[in-house]
Write a structure and sequence with these properties.
The protein has 339 residues and is an alpha/beta fold. 47% of the residues lie in helices and 14% in strands. It folds into 2 domains: 259 residues, Glycoside hydrolase/deacetylase (TIM Barrel); 62 residues, no CATH class.
């Protein structure tokens, strides 16, 4: 109930523009960094984990709003301001995409270009090299297209014809796959597919390198960064695996695109001090995490920047509020410390 109340309050603050008045009155400076994954047309969304797939009309409306009411800056521009000890102007927003979905090129890029908005796409380069769907979408597809209803998973048995058990099984599988190595992930996914025998209607959701090159050529306002090679949880991986993931992705981008990446996104938003030290020593200018979102300001560590994950359930009012710069300080002031 408290969460629903906060959501309604945020929506009201955004719809009335009270948040913009608050930012001006308090002279709040700083940038909100937005995180997207996929901007999917309907024929692809049905094959994806719904939490990752933003419908095209909602994304288009959000970009139109940003072009009218906010100041969208590139991640390079933000890095330059932080290097100089400056805070971005009020209402500044940075747009980022994780993973490397094909619709970033085919759907999102033309919308961004129409409004003249910059963005950064952060690639899981192993998935791009193989043009292989992200494991979360593969898992979703296996459950959605299943022809069998029984699943044994991590010493537990589930009847997937029962919605509660289906949801529990999916959450358990996702929880096990997040910290897994690529080999462990492949083994578990193979077991799930063998048991569920999903219908074979999978389509390619990720870019390949030719498409990344074309994205970079056709849309100069979109920069490319790194998101590791195999989307491994760096917070739980051994240090040698961390270095392997970072260096392999860095080399992939240098080899395929002809330049060295300077922006990075931590998979699952999970930080790693060892990774940050490697990034700093190899010239990376920013590294982004996930929520809880805070404004990127002069005192921010550019290798520990947090983002706001934009889901399809974020109403226009809440989107206006969360991109105004008023959040989270106004929420804490009004709601007894709750943001």
């Amino acid at each position: 109930m408290k969460r629903r109340f906060l959501e309604k309050a945020h929506q009201a603050l955004g719809m009335t523009s009270a948040c913009d008045l608050y930012v001006r009155a308090r002279r709040i400076r700083g940038a909100v960094i937005l995180m997207y994954h996929s901007v999917a047309p309907p024929e692809r969304r049905i094959h994806q984990d719904q939490a990752m797939a933003m419908p095209e009309p909602i994304f288009a409306a959000q970009m139109a709003f940003l072009s009218r009411r906010r100041r969208v800056i590139s991640l390079d521009a933000l890095a330059g301001m932080l290097d100089e000890g400056q805070s971005p102007e009020p209402g500044s927003v940075v747009i980022t995409f994780d993973d490397g979905y094909l619709d970033n090129y085919e759907v999102a890029a033309p919308i961004l270009a129409h409004h003249g908005l910059p963005a950064t796409v952060l690639l899981a380069t192993g998935y791009v090299e193989r043009a292989e769907n992200m494991w979360i979408d593969e898992l979703y597809g296996a459950f959605r297209g299943r022809t069998q209803q029984r699943l044994g998973l991590l010493d537990a048995a589930f009847d997937l014809s029962k919605p509660t058990q289906r949801d529990q099984a999916c959450q358990l599988a996702a929880g096990a796959l997040v910290p897994a190595s690529r080999a462990e992930r492949a083994e578990l996914m193979s077991s799930i597919r063998d048991q569920l025998e999903p219908r074979s209607n999978e389509i390619r959701l990720m870019m390949n390198w030719d498409e990344v090159r074309e994205l970079h050529r056709r849309y100069p306002n979109i920069s490319i960064g790194s998101h590791t090679r195999e989307h491994i949880d760096l917070s739980s991986a051994p240090n040698d695996e961390v270095v392997k993931e970072l260096s392999a992705a860095h080399e992939d981008i240098r080899r395929e695109l002809g330049f060295e990446a300077t922006h990075f996104a931590f998979p699952y938003g999970r930080d790693s001090a060892h990774a940050r030290n490697w990034l700093k020593s190899h010239g990376y200018r920013t590294a982004v995490l996930t929520e809880p979102m805070t404004l990127a300001q002069s005192a921010s560590d550019p290798l520990v920047l947090t983002r706001l994950e934009v889901g399809q359930d974020r109403s226009p009012g809440r989107f206006a509020y969360h991109t105004s710069g008023a959040h989270p300080s106004l929420s804490r002031a009004l709601f007894l410390g709750r943001a």
